[in-house]
Design a protein that fits this description.
Length: 415
């Protein structure tokens, strides 16, 4: 490794002072050229000493300038190396060393320069300003296109609340999942984080739809974090979604045996929750939505499932508010209904469905209008003007997926 001797620092100062006294630099003078070359050699040796490399004279390497076997190659200074080198030299010469490193000039080329000969980055400054303006213009276009900055949280709070209500709470998802698994003969065991369920007794179609390589029994967690190979009690979880899909599809397939169908499309029960005969309907509403697109409108289909209920006869129904409908969903049975009597009530309820089509169509139209207004509110809050380009049309008649009859409890208590 090349070593820099203290006397060489003195030589650098001496040669630099001589250079400052001469005006201008004359390359033809031998003493000038030798002085500057000597200063350049000393600084070069300082750089090599810092980097841990050596560079011998051609005479020391065989006279022809070739490298000896095993000799280390000269490496360029890194940013950290240059910073350390600048900090190592005396303060009065740091500017000189920095200019040498950044400009790539030799000392004999650098010292004769005057202030008027140096471009202090004017061109680079102009380039930087142009790049800055271009980036600002692109950012403005991005904000205009995606309109994140124009969205006001208050404008979309209503839509978010409706979406969350339709998705159901975590407790509702947990109750549904546990009841569905028990109905399919799975052993459900409560745990501090939720519950576990054995999957071996489940129908093969449902077992194949669950996440591969899951734990056995399968843990269902109420919240985060969820360990690997476990499920979370959330409707977007793949295992919960697989269970819900199986329950719905099996209910729509009358060819499956009863033990493979945990849900039914029709039912009759007695309960203390009603004083008059009450009918609950599970209705699927479909909407054809036309949205603005590039060139022409984009058509999508939206679906919504609603639970409706009415008291009395279908010809003169008394429709229940949402609060009473939700109470019916958790109403417990209070007595048995003979099979022939249950079949009679169910058949009459199904036969009377045509009397309800006008009301169901009106609900579908109202939902279509609310959906259109929701699209317009969100898009206009983002700065879009698409009122004439958003169209929503309800598909009629609505699909009635389930009919359930609630009868008042028999006098004298459960039987």
């Amino acid at each position: 490794m090349a070593q820099v001797k203290p006397e060489e620092d003195r030589e650098v100062a001496y040669e630099h002072e001589k250079a400052q006294q001469r005006e201008p630099y004359d390359e033809t003078r031998d003493d000038d050229r030798r002085g500057y070359d000597r200063l350049e050699q000393i600084l070069a040796r300082k750089a090599m000493a810092h980097e841990g490399v050596s560079r011998g004279n051609p005479e020391e390497k065989g006279g022809d300038g070739g490298e000896e076997p095993g000799a280390e190659k000269v490496k360029a200074l890194t940013e950290d190396g240059l910073r350390a080198l600048v900090e190592a030299v005396p303060v009065g010469r740091r500017l000189l060393v920095t200019l040498l490193a950044q400009s790539g000039l030799r000392i004999s080329e650098l010292l004769p320069l005057r202030w008027k000969d140096i471009d202090f980055g004017t061109q680079r400054r102009d380039d930087l300003h142009r790049e800055w303006d271009s980036a600002a213009a692109q950012e403005k276009q991005s904000r205009t296109k995606f309109a994140q900055m124009g969205i006001q949280p208050g404008e979309v709070a209503r839509e978010l609340a409706e979406i969350r209500a339709s998705l159901g709470s975590g407790d509702e998802v947990a109750v549904f999942t546990a009841e569905a698994l028990r109905a399919l003969d799975a052993e459900v065991t409560d745990a501090t984080y939720g519950f576990t369920a054995t999957t071996a007794p489940l129908p093969i179609g449902l077992r194949d739809a669950l996440t591969p390589a899951h734990r056995e029994p399968l843990p269902f967690h109420n919240g985060l974090p969820v360990p690997p190979r476990a499920a979370r009690l959330d409707r977007t979880d793949p295992d919960v979604a697989a269970i819900a899909r199986y329950v719905l599809e099996s209910a729509l397939d009358p060819t499956l045996p009863a033990w493979l169908r945990p849900a039914r499309r029709c039912g009759v029960m007695r309960t203390v929750a009603v004083q008059r005969r009450t009918t609950l309907l599970l209705v699927r509403l479909r909407m054809h939505v036309g949205l603005p697109g590039r060139g022409e409108a984009r058509q999508v289909v939206a679906e919504d499932a609603q639970v409706l209920a009415f008291r009395g006869r279908p010809g003169e129904p008394e429709w229940l508010p949402d609060e009473d409908v939700q109470a019916l969903l958790v109403a417990p049975p209070s007595g048995n209904v003979p099979p022939d009597q249950a079949a009679d009530f169910a058949e009459r309820a199904i036969a009377d469905l045509p009397h309800l089509h006008a009301h169901l169509d009106q609900i579908a139209d109202d939902l279509a209008e609310r959906l259109r207004e929701a699209h317009l509110r969100v898009r206009e809050a983002a700065g879009q003007r698409v009122r004439r380009q958003v169209a929503v049309r309800a598909q009629k008649p609505a699909d009635v997926l389930g009919v359930y009859v609630y009868l008042p409890a028999a006098q004298g208590g459960p039987r």
